[in-house]
């Protein structure tokens, strides 16, 4: 099997030399800088960190060995980029100055606030502050209060805190807002002349019902001989964002929009993301387009790439399009059915060529006016979603193939590809042994046979109890997709060339793609400096955004389950570790932990890594991923973002516990049935009000 691509490691030169890397600070206060290409981290003692914080990108000067183990020791000389510059905390106001005392222990010192930068905050207020200056060898940074949180709900403080904790600012600097505000409404008649005008061709957008930023649109018209012209039109964000402007620097800094249960933290100011760039219906908009001549079977005869001006005739929600696909009457039904037929054929071709058909479930929280979750809905990917997905994939692939085939001064054009490496061999070997327990055989001889094995497995287990666990474990064996100028292809999609072109309102790599693409079309290529470093930054920000989204979703799960402490639920084991297992409720997809301590009364359990199971040494009882269990909600701790369950029924032997009220420390309230939980009502036994 093809091995994962790896870069050779090396030892740092112990002669004084400066490296750039990411700082990680331990709980004890010791720091370590990870430098790409070095096989050992550089150790930083507490008094050598200057004002660097955990997660910052820093420059570090190596100054020799720290110990007999040849650990390299260094001194931080500069903070290149801060992971986090905004912090929540408590305001302390004194006679001539003030401080913000941060909530997070990741910020070890208070932030000095000049009185004129309090912005209305008073002594004792909870507030959000931003560092505006922190000179070298100065103990306390100077900051300003961004917003006072005393009037906000607990939810508001939590959501904002999780954003800033992961390095995403809550507001845009004034110069960025001024940059965005200077662009006028509408389109310029001189700019129109530079573009292909397709305003007279039927054009629609299809998005979530609550979307406000519309990145993409589809145009459609019928041609002779069974051919259709289908245009994929993407908001031309690069028209508005000039390189190295304040707006551009802030967009790069953020690199991505972050989608939380109750809000979006946008990459671009609302003036652009929701207004000027958004492809709103009945408005002329600038776009970057790929227009295909394609038949119903998905065969492409020709395509054109360039800048356009469009006029969206209709804004559809996914649900409306799905209803039409399933037979309902509606606007442009004929065209939507043809587009869906083409998309289904494109999808079928992808899987035949090696794409892996993983499906995923997402949850959406139903929130009340305070942001508190009152229900959870599982989102399904239906044909309407797949229709858009296939045309976006086709556009991304076509753009990457076009640029990938060009040369500049005899070399390939530097370009931010979206790549996905082959699966990790060790993880894959363990997974294939586990899958064999369900009658699934894997051929691990080549990357091609592996993808075929995955698709065969997914088809075999469709609709079976083991489907979810095998899908989830299968996804975990996969490498992470990243941005890089080194094009190794996209294994999961089965594409030799792939990039992100279709979402420039919410992803900075797409803006880079648009800029380079226009240079290629004009045959005036000026390679972007430090493009690989920009790719790494965008990949890092994407990871941080995912961590933020997971953390906020977990917060909402915990908040939701606070109303169900003491209740019983059917669940599925979703993860196993030495210290217990995680279980996800069937009704609400809320994951919690069953501690190993909870299981000691039954047996002494051993963790079997290759079997994804805890196994009793004496009884042979097994708790394995995918097993169905019955659990009771013990606690839901918002501060720790943690749900704790107790086990009520054992797998295999299905041995039930004794009466609930005999278990010490348990809520003796009668348990509500899963049937009541699913319909959102109360059991006839419960006498409490849902909070």
How does this model look, in words?
- This protein is α+β, with helices and mostly antiparallel strands.
- The chain is 26% helix and 28% strand.
- The chain has 15 helices and 33 strands.
- The chain has a 7-stranded mixed beta sheet. The chain has a 5-stranded antiparallel beta sheet with strand order 3-2-1-4-5, with no helix packed on it. Strands 8-7-6-9-10 form a 5-stranded antiparallel beta sheet.
- Helix 7 packs across helix 8 (383-404).
- The model is unreliable at 1-9 and 652-691 (pLDDT under 50).
- Rg for CA atoms: 28 Å
Structural class: alpha+beta
Neighbour order of strands in the largest sheet: 11-18-17-14-13-12-19
- Overall geometry: globular
Low-confidence stretches: 1-9, 652-691
Can you count the beta strands? 33
Oligomerization status of the protein chains: single chain
Please describe the biggest sheet, giving its number of strands, its sense, and whether it closes into a barrel.
7 strands, mixed
**Continuous helix count:** 15
Which features characterize this protein?
691 residues, OB fold (Dihydrolipoamide Acetyltransferase, E2P), 15 helices, alpha+beta, seven-stranded mixed beta sheet, disordered C terminus, five-stranded antiparallel beta sheet, single chain, disordered N terminus, 4 domains
